[in-house]
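Name: peroxidase
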Amino acid sequence: MASSYRVYYSFPFHLLLFLSSLLSSSADLSFNFYANSCPLAEFLVRNTVRSATSSDPTIPGKLLRLLFHDCFVQGCDASVLIQGNSTERSDPGNASLGGFSVIERAKNAIEILCPATVSCADIVALAARDAVEAAGGPVVEIPTGRRDGNISMAANVRPNIIDTDFSLGQMIDAFSSKGLSIQDLVVLSGIYINVS
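Structure predicted for peroxidase:
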């Protein structure tokens, strides 16, 4: 059972790496971006995710899905976290997203030590990475240095996120437009089925 659980999360983790850099300039990202400005940032995110996962085993899938929805709309900029009328978060396509409280707890812990330093976009990416590890997946470093977006529009969700009434052809086209394969579609569909 444990090995199938690990296999289940290992491929999405590699997809996580792709998603976290989707629509981001790789020149802007680096490993250990917060080494000097907030050296405990990744540790705090990891511990927050481990704690949340120990009390709710659906957290890993929720955090991967949250990253997916963030990255697919207008890049990995945490715009899905912004609350309010007509924001990405308010769109019915995002109504079943979870994991927001984990991101909030991690952000609050980081803000105590390093105010206004670590982006929410990096926290979302790191939390998804750490959720995979907490579920028995591989430990892999990802680059950080993403910037938070300040524009979040519900109107941007539907053209970019697969809807429940999409045909298989429409789903394949949507994934292809983001540089993803049919295998990626199948894996992410499995995550949706298991956490929705």
